[in-house]
Amino acid sequence: MKIGYGGDYNPEQWPTDVWKQDFRLFDEAHIDTLTVGVFTWGLTQPGPDVYDFTMLDRIIDRAAAEDRRLCLATGTGAHPAWLAKHHPEVTRTDFEGRKHRYGQRHNSCPSSPVFRRLSTEMARRLAQRYAGNPAVIAWHVGNEYGGACYCDLCADGFRDWLRTRYGDVDALNAAWYTTFWSHTFTDWDQIEPPSALTEHWRGPDHTAFQGITLDYLRFMSDAMLANFRDEKAAIRESDPHTPVTTNFMGLYRPIDYHRWAPHLDFASWDNYPPDDRSPARMALAHDLMRGLKDGQPFWLMEQTPSVTACRDVNPLKRPGVMRLWSWQAVAHGADAVLFFQMRAGRGASEKYHGAVIGHAGRADTRVFREVAALGAELSALGGVTLGARTPARVALLFDWDSWWALEISDGPSRLVRYLDVVTAYHRALWTLGADLDVIGVTAPLDGYDVVIAPALHMIKGDLAERLSAVAFRGGSVVTTFLSGRVDENDNAFLTDVPGPLGALLGVRVDEWDAREPVYVNRVRVGDATFQSRLLFELVLPQGAEVVGRYEEDWYAGTAAITRNDFGAGHGWYVGAGLDCAGVTWVVRQVLERHWLLGPYPDLGEVETAVRVAPDGSRLLFILNHGSSPVDLPAVPAGINLLPGDPLVLEPYGVRIVNMIT
């Protein structure tokens, strides 16, 4: 066994004489895993009561004969034209209230009984036909779930969801604070989905009633999860064992992946960073995906071998970058490295999207040669990394509810974005080489010495007590401005900010100042000064030690950063929107206290990560994201698993060291 290597293959788009050429090239590139059938619903069900698996049979039989492993999709990521014609209610109504006609993909109403019945039946028939086929190693349900619908069917579904959540209208009114603006509901049928026609103005994030919008975001995520669960249950009728997944999209706001994670057998995701300068952001997404299943390895289900096609500007991966980013995925937990797409389509919106095999079918392109070279490396490495885990003693909390609640709030600043704050603190951890898990707020915290909780806006359940327990036993907890503000219904705590975190942090916040991006307030920490922007909380110590103070404006001298002794550990509070250097300074203090800095914390764009294999081997990954060579200090003793000078890392270079312990 080795890391799965291959990707999305759509032979239904080409004549069969092309298939022969494809499989010859797959051999050259060491391709062993293919995802097939992702968008085949229109072929496998060409009419209401007609099923035709002729094409899919040929695809699966040919791939199996070529000894390829298959991730078989249910094909329900886009419904066929006849379905929309016969049942127009299956198409979505958008935020503006417009009923969509047939077209695009992600155009299926998740609450439509017809869509749910027919998509489930498609999954059922596929499983009945292909369960037990030894080539099928995984099932792929739907594709990149997302978006939202505001139709009457979803309105009814929302009301049912609310009945289950609240039980009666009085409880709902209390949760939504409906005495404001005379919004008290007296019957369930008075409730409307929050859209541009009801509670919103100037877009989805501008809402009069945050509680209503927050619950609709939760409902829509759950509605699409119900679609996934329908299809998985249908597969399980015929195939009780083969793992089932769907491809997530990393740092994707509309779907709460923590709510979905228990229903997937393994996590998988599609890595399409916004530019070619985001290695830390990709690391965050990898860590988040790994954390969904308690540290289990995930699949990198899609990445481009060269270029995307869906953006205004689509930069090309430079020589060596595809290899580097693939190894980065493995360093953070990937047991499969797959591409979209294996062969470039001739038409439609993805004809210029990068592919392993281009339109000309050549093997002498730079892209194909790089794919083949990586395939050879993965084959030579074998199964050394399979099943390996990250030995993290640092946790970064990531919470979709806090993300949603913070960004739909009126005030203090719409320019403060949850993901920006989380990314800043993750980047500091990444730069300093800490091995970490990105986990949800309900995950156990017992195994961590450090917990970083940026912009922990919403405090749910016993989270405050569990964070306090981390510090009490000697650990460190770090949180920031806009934390501890609201409960699970997005209602403010009737106590001093930061609410239930007050005792742990030893502070109180009465006032805060929000400014435009050009305004800078400096924060002095010892002999160092850092810039802060956007939000400035005036922190009043209630036992905490002042670590940093503002230097500008009428609140110069007010505390901006504090550290509170709590039991044997500390609770840190960062009330200012610090720049990158300031965030890194805070995180470094915490990591140094617990001896958790990585081996090369000051080597610029060099990333390190450790995975521990099932046999106990400790694998150190060293990756150079820079375009210049880097001289490494002494490398830990061990066996180099990839070729190269152990003390000089070439541009975009990678080393894997099996460390001797």
Description:
With 661 residues, the chain is of the alpha/beta class. The protein has three domains: 4-149 and 216-381, Glycosidases (TIM Barrel), CATH 3.20.20.80; 394-594, 3-Layer(aba) Sandwich (Rossmann fold), CATH 3.40.50; 606-659, Immunoglobulin-like (Sandwich). The chain contains 17 helices and 26 strands. Strands 10, 11, 12, 13, 14, 15, 16, 17, 18, 19 and 20 form an eleven-stranded mixed sheet that branches. A nine-stranded parallel sheet has the order 5-4-3-2-1-9-8-7-6, with helices on one face. Strand 6 (247-248), helix 9 and strand 7 (268-270) form a beta-alpha-beta unit. The longest helix is centred in the middle third of the chain and has 29 residues, at 210-238. The model has no long low-confidence stretch (mean pLDDT 96). This is Beta-galactosidase. Residues 8-380 form the Glycoside hydrolase family 42 N-terminal domain. Substrate binds at residues 105, 143.
